[in-house]
Amino acid sequence: MAYTPHTDPDRAAMLAAIGVAGIDDLFDDVPPAVRAAAWDLPAPMVEQEVRAELRRLANRNRIPDVSFLGYGAYRHLVPSVVSEVVGRAEFSTAYTPYQPEVSQGTLQSIYEFQSLICELTGMEVATASHYDGATATAEAALMACRLTRRERVAVSNAVHPEVRRVLATYCSGPGIEVVEVPADLAAGGTGQTDPAAAAAVLDDSFACLIAQQPNAFGVLEPMAELGQAAHAAGAQLVAVVEPTSLAVLEPPGSYGADIVTAEGQPLGIPMSFGGPWVGLMAARMGAVRQMPGRLVGATRDAAGRKGYVLTLQAREQHIRREKAASNICTNQALCALAATAYLTAVGPAGLREVAELSMAQARHAAGALRRAGLAERRFTAPYVAEVAVTVPDAERRHAVLAAEGVVAGAPLWRDYPELTDTLLLAATELTSDTDIERLVAALEASR
User: d(Cα 152, Cα 165) in Å, to the nearest integer?
Assistant: First the structure.
């Protein structure tokens, strides 16, 4: 049966209304060579043939035996209670946050998520339903522009390059200029963003300075000094953080961050080939009216019973085009629920243990490589759970190890041409001593 309700007279009337002769005219902007291309599509298949073809394609995926890849996506242990909670039908199928009388469970889970993020970041208010960490950071830049009524944004080039690319895309529409602040990337340098360099860039036309902690190279930034440079120019400090590290690092609220964003994937969400994930955003209470996303508040009904409801934002806030705080109206509530279940399950002590184990294994890996004469640290600044190391002939050896099932971290030269032969190794609580021994042996054999 046909699933389109339009008749031929309907189509003719619509084409006449928009002033074109036929449907083909609607595709005039597509290059003729593309429109005329012969699409070599396979013949239709029955269900069992489709299943067999999908299995064949899936078998092409290669799962490494050992991986030190991080660079924004991290392999952590997800307690079984997380999948048990998010798999409950009332959470996995319900989507009614605008109808509090029938969605108290969903609203309460978002409220708990917000509360945990505030506790983790040391900020006063958090919102939910951000698509991922990169878009949350871009939204924070637009938010800072609205708060300061300025139209320039400064960002350290030690912020992850994919985040910076999303930021550039977001800012291109409203015409916001993005200016990069250089980090010290010289061999033997700190790997940090110099506060003096930031101060030299910033003036009263900048809405914010965006810096990452730990940064894209895994090292710790002087966030308090960067915040002082931003505030001296009347700009805001947007801190992009890795949430697990906050169990051992000073919270952004303590060093003067105005807006905090993060990728929530490390909090109980599998890597899943890149998503779906969840963005985190927190800020000062004075900025709450300009925060994108959804905000759930606790209240009481006419009978005095505690309840939860979306607050401080009208439903139309999300769909008012240029007047909206955000033009993304998404629902990452299930991923936020996973993060809530994870943080509740591991607790403060458990999260700190995860962070400390990750730190210990990163140092174990770096030390083992150094003692074997295979690699040296690229930067001198302190690091948490990712370390940039210089390996001679790294490009060839990285490919050799990958073919053997060992992913020797992220090749930084792909995003930073000046970081030749530099690999970024990440460790988590799942990185075993055997993994490190395998890495050392494979690098040794690839000389």
Answer: 16
11 Cβ contact partners less than 8 Å away, ≥ 6 residues apart: 23
Give the HSE-up count for residue 280: Cα atoms under 13 Å, Cβ half-sphere. Answer: 30
According to DSSP, the residues that pair with 294 across neighbouring strands are 128
Using the structure block, give the residue that is written with the tokens 């939910």.
128
Please answer whether residues 156 and 180 qualify as being in contact, where contact means their C-beta atoms are separated by less than 8 angstroms.
Answer: yes
Hey, what's the torsion of the CAs at 228, 229, 231, 236, to 10 degrees?
A: -110
pLDDT > 90: percent of the chain: 78
Q: Mean of the per-residue pLDDT values for the chain?
A: 92
pLDDT bin (cut points 50, 70, 90) of residue 373 is very high
Residue whose C-alpha is closest to residue 198's, from 206, 209, 214, 212: 209
66-74+350-445 CATH: 3.90.1150.10
Q: What is the CATH number of domain 80-342?
A: 3.40.640.10
- Closest by CA to 252, choosing from 153, 380, 124, 381, is 124
Give me the mean pLDDT over the 10-15 stretch: 94
Sort strands 236-241 and 206-213 into parallel, antiparallel or unpaired: parallel
Determine the Cα–Cα distance for residues 282 and 122; give it in Å rounded to an integer: 9
293, 281 contact by CB (below 8 A): yes
For the record, the structure tokens of 204 come out as: 């009263």
Dig out the tokens for 314 from the structure: 């009208």
Closest CA to 144 of 123, 180, 169, 171: 171
Token pair listed for 158: 């030690």
348: left (phi over 0), alpha (psi -120 to 50) or beta: alpha
Q: Could you tell me the residue ranges of all domains in the chain?
A: 66-74+350-445, 80-342
Calculate the alpha carbon distances from 192 to 156, 166, 209, 227 in Å: 9, 22, 14, 14
Least confidently predicted of 17-26, 96-105, 110-119, 258-267 = 96-105
Q: Residue 331 pLDDT more than 60?
A: yes
Helices (H), 372-425: 394-403
CA distance 424 to 158: 13
Query: What does the pLDDT read at residue 96?
Result: 62
Which pLDDT does position 37 carry in this prediction?
A: 74
Task: Identify the H or E element spanning 144.
Answer: helix 133-148
Residues 202-246: pLDDT tens digits? 999 999 999 999 999 999 999 999 999 999 999 999 999 999 999
Per-residue pLDDT reduced to its tens digit, 376-428? 999 999 999 999 999 999 999 999 999 999 999 999 999 999 999 999 999 99
